[in-house]
Amino acid sequence: MNQTKVAIIGAGWRADFYLHLALLMPAEFEVVGWVVRDQAKAKASPVKTYTSVSELLVHEKPDYAISAVTWLSNPDVLALLVEAGIPVLSETPPAGDADALRKLWSAVGAKNLVQVAEQYMRLPMHAARLAVTRQGVIGQVSSVQVSSTHGYHAVAIMRSFLEAGFGETKVNASSFKAPLVDPLTRGGWNQDLEPKIASTVLATIDFGEGKSGLFDFTDNQWHNQLRHRRLVVRGSLGEIVDNDCIRLIQIRAITKSQFTRYQLGHDLNLDGHDTEHISFDGKAVYNNPFVGHRLMDEEIAIASLMLEMSDWVKGSGPAPYPLAQASQDHLISMAIDDSLAKGVPVTTSTEAWT
Q1: What confidence tens digit (pLDDT) does each residue in 300-313 have?
Q2: What is the Cα–Cα distance from 62 to 53, expressed in whole angstroms?
Q3: Phi/psi of residue 216, nearest 5 degrees
Q4: Contact assessment for residue 19 and residue 31, using Cβ atoms and an 8 Å cutoff
Q5: Which of 152, 251, 261, 280 is most buried, most CB within 10 Å of its CB?
Q6: Does residue 46 have a cis peptide bond before it, meaning omega lies within 30 degrees of 0?
């Protein structure tokens, strides 16, 4: 079997995702080591564990490593692996602040061994929308509005649809507070259903060349299902709003289309509970590569990145998401925070990773 040998560094909930998915696909992956200091996790681990990256590298040389550690620790882990010549798939963001990003780029950027696990554009519906916009269905994309996830993930979504580069950006952010019930968190259902004050951040981002983004995020919007996840992608011929598309196809002909998910396992379908494909105007624009594994969207996105990383290290596929792209995402995300804190617009500079 042409397995990819992977090592996982970190013991948090993200690391658990990678371990679970790698073990779910034994034909594709062999986990040759897991760096974990939590003794309870180490004892229960189904794979060989190590207490440090250095100890791992004494015994194994993986095809690539996955770094899922804290923002503070990540740059040192990446530098150590790159120095050993090991390609790395790093969790987001690759470093905690702008200075750390610049220092990391100076240390490892030229080696071209670091990719970043920015998974959002591998989520099935986002991937389907991107495929349609790349076909020119709504013309030239000029504006993206994201209200679903925070900072660097939202910026990555905007930059992907806009195909924005690394030039200066102008960011203007404001915050508003209002009562909101928060019934669901990562830990489960909240028994306290009294409204609490929640902050909503609104930010405009001018990417230059007529391209813009609108960031709209409310505290815990990932989990709080009392707030919709919204996406608007505007182009010269029309726009996509969530799963609906309106566009001009000829004189006196404006049409509407929908993105439709075909879901297995509903009603009398006995093929397992799975997303099979997403269609648009009668054509499948996204096909789930993991039918049969019954993965949720987040797992599909992460597994897609893992396979793309395998292809890249073997020289049979493009780079999944280079360090430069992720650094730019986080730089703009931090500019949102900076503008919010200072109460004035903030402009990002062109950086070395350009």
Answers
A1: 999 999 999 999 99
A2: 12
A3: -140, 110
A4: yes
A5: 152
A6: no
Amino acid in position 286 = Y
Question: How far apart (Å, rounded) are the C-alpha atoms in residues 181 and 183?
Answer: 6
Question: What are the structure tokens assigned to 225, written together?
Answer: 């299902």
- Measure the CA–CA gap between 215 and 158, rounded to whole angstroms: 9
d(CA 165, CA 302): 24
3-state secondary structure of 290: coil
- The single-letter DSSP state of residue 349 is P
Calpha distance 289→270 (Å, rounded): 19
User: CA dist 313 to 10, 114, 193, 319, Å?
Assistant: 21, 11, 49, 9
Nearest Cα to 205, choosing from 254, 153, 158?
Answer: 158
SS (H, E, C) 107-125: HHHHHCCEEECCCHHHCHH
In the numeric block, which tokens belong to residue 193? 């259903």
Strands 169-180 and 238-241: unpaired
> pLDDT, tens digit, for every residue of 223-274?
999 999 999 999 999 999 999 999 999 999 999 999 999 999 999 888 889 9
Type of residue at 232: V
Stated length of the chain: 354
Cβ proximity of 274 and 265 under 8 Å: yes
Domains (ranges, CATH) in the chain?
4-117 (3.40.50.720), 121-293 (3.30.360)
Q: Do 49 and 33 contact (CB within 8 A), yes or no?
A: yes
